[in-house]
Design goal:
Elements lengths: L8 E3 L10 E5 L5 E3 L5 E3 L4 E6 L3 H9 L5 H8 L6 E4 L4 E8 L10 E8 L3 E6 L4 H12 L6 H35 L6 H30 L7 H67 L14 H22 L4
Parallel strand pairs: 5-9
Antiparallel strand pairs: 1-4, 2-3, 2-5, 6-7, 7-8, 8-9
Helix pairs in contact: 3-4, 4-5, 4-6, 5-6
C-alpha cells in the first residue's frame, strides 16, 4: 500500500501476508471486500490485514515487508505487551488489552490486540481470538462497519470497551448477589469472593492506562482524524474513566462484604464458645464433687490423721483462691 498513490489499482500480492487470519478492503459504505493474492485493491480505500503474530509465516512477512517501520515490526510480534500508543510520521502503533466476556464464568480471559494504522492501511495482530474483532468483522458483513481508518479505530475501541462493560456488569451482578447472601446471613465460599476481586483488579489494571491512550490519540495531530472522531475518542476515554471509578467502588464493597462475613463468623464463634462455657459452669461443681469423693484417702500424706480429708479440701480451696487472685492481678478477670 505504501508509495502507490500515483496509481489507481495495486496488486494485493504486493502487500498481502502469506497466511493472514483475514484481509479485506473497506468500501467506504460500511462493508468490506475480501482480498486474496489474485485481487486488486484500490488506493482510494484502506485495506485491513489481520494477522496471527505467533505464526512463523506472519513473523517472516512482517520482518521482510517495507510497509511498516522497523520499530513497529518488533512491537507487532512481541509476545508480552503493555497498553501503549506510539506515534510515527506515517501512522500510529496502538497496543490495547481487552477481555473475552464469558457469561457466568470468572475471571474472563484477557486478550492483547495490537495494530499499526495509517491513512490507507491497517495491519493488526493477535494470537488469541478476540470477540471484539469478530464482532467488527460481522458488522462489515452486515454493512454497518467502519467506512474509513478513523471509523475503524473508533469502532474497534468501542467494541473492546463494550466487552469490558459486559465483564464489569457480570462482576457487579455477582457482587449484588453476594451482598444479598450476607444480609441473609448465609455463608459462602471465600474462593467465590476471591474470583470476583481478582476480576475487578484485572479490569482496573487493564482500563487505567487505556483511558489515557484514547486521550493521547485524540490530541495527536493526525490528518485522518477529524474533530468528530476526536470527540468520540474522548467519550470512550470518559466511559473507561467511569468504569475505573465503579471498579474502585466495587472493591470497597467487596471489602465491606469481607468485614461483614468476618463479623458474622466471629459472632457465631462467640455464641458457640458462650454455650460451651455454660455447659462448663454447669458441670464444674459436679466434676469437683465426683473428683473429691473419688479421692483415694489411703494414698494421700497424713492419711492416718483425722483431719487429712479436711486438709485436702482446704488445700483445694486455697489453690482456687490463689488462682483467682493471680487472674485479678493479671487483669484477666
Amino acid at each position: 500500500m505504501a508509495n502507490v498513490d500515483s496509481i489507481e489499482v495495486v496488486p494485493v500480492s504486493r502487500f498481502l501476508a502469506s497466511e493472514p487470519v483475514f484481509s479485506c478492503q473497506l468500501d467506504g459504505k460500511g462493508k468490506a471486500i475480501s482480498l486474496n493474492k489474485e485481487s486488486e485493491a484500490s488506493v482510494q480505500q484502506p485495506c485491513w490485514i489481520h494477522l496471527d503474530f505467533a505464526k512463523t509465516e506472519t513473523i517472516n512477512w512482517i520482518n521482510s515487508t517495507d510497509l511498516i517501520p522497523d520499530l513497529v515490526k518488533t512491537e507487532l510480534i512481541k509476545t508480552n505487551q503493555i497498553s501503549k500508543e506510539i506515534r510515527f510520521d506515517s501512522g500510529i502503533l496502538v497496543v490495547l488489552k481487552g477481555v473475552n466476556y464469558i457469561p457466568n464464568e470468572l475471571p474472563d480471559p484477557i486478550v492483547t490486540f495490537r495494530f499499526y494504522i495509517t491513512d490507507n492501511l491497517i495491519i493488526s495482530a493477535r494470537h488469541q481470538q478476540i470477540d471484539a474483532i469478530t464482532q467488527l468483522k460481522e458488522n462489515l458483513e452486515k454493512g454497518i462497519g467502519p467506512v474509513d481508518v478513523a471509523d475503524w479505530l473508533i469502532q474497534v475501541s468501542e467494541l473492546i470497551s463494550d466487552q469490558v462493560n459486559l465483564s464489569f456488569d457480570s462482576v457487579h451482578n455477582k457482587i449484588v448477589k453476594l451482598e444479598d447472601l450476607v444480609l441473609n446471613q448465609r455463608i459462602f465460599s471465600h474462593k467465590e469472593i476471591g474470583r470476583v476481586r481478582k476480576q475487578l483488579i484485572v479490569l482496573r489494571r487493564l482500563l487505567s492506562p487505556q483511558r489515557d491512550i484514547f486521550v493521547k490519540i485524540s490530541t495527536e495531530r493526525i490528518s485522518w482524524i477529524d474533530d468528530n472522531d476526536r470527540q468520540r475518542l474522548h467519550d470512550i476515554s470518559n466511559q473507561q474513566n467511569h468504569y475505573v471509578s465503579d471498579i474502585d467502588s466495587c472493591l470497597l464493597r467487596i471489602a465491606s462484604i469481607m468485614e461483614q462475613i468476618n463479623s458474622f463468623l466471629a459472632e457465631s464463634t462467640n455464641k458457640r464458645i458462650y454455650l460451651m462455657s455454660l455447659f462448663t459452669i454447669i458441670f464444674t461443681p459436679i466434676t469437683f464433687l465426683t473428683s473429691l469423693l473419688g479421692v483415694n484417702l489411703a494414698g494421700i500424706p497424713y492419711n492416718e490423721q483425722h483431719w487429712s480429708f479436711v486438709g485436702l479440701v482446704l488445700l483445694i480451696i486455697a489453690i482456687c483462691v490463689g488462682s483467682v487472685i493471680w487472674l485479678k492481678f493479671k487483669k484477666w478477670l
